[in-house]
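Study this chain:
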Amino acid sequence: MRTLDDYFRDVIPRVYMPVMRELLTSEEFGTVNFSIRHLPDGRPQTGEIPIGTDDWTLFIEVHGETMFELLNEPITDEEISSRFYSDLQDWISETTFGWGQLRDHP
């Protein structure tokens, strides 16, 4: 089972970042920040805490606006990527920086 640190070291760079590079402009991508916390008001956490032992959420901030993805295990990288692509695409169209845009593969 993956841990919070596994997400920061491996899953975010390998699975989430390529999706973000595809759907965000380079300026938007340069503002990205991640944290993992409990909803709704938890402090950011790291460590060897297994995902699936609690309700962990990945917070993604772009241009000061925040979306979140619930972290579930077990789940494949392909499932994460597909779900995140769809969620990010929808979220961008609701932000002030991407209002009304349905971004897709270049």
Remarks:
- Helices lie at 4-23, 26-29, 77-92.
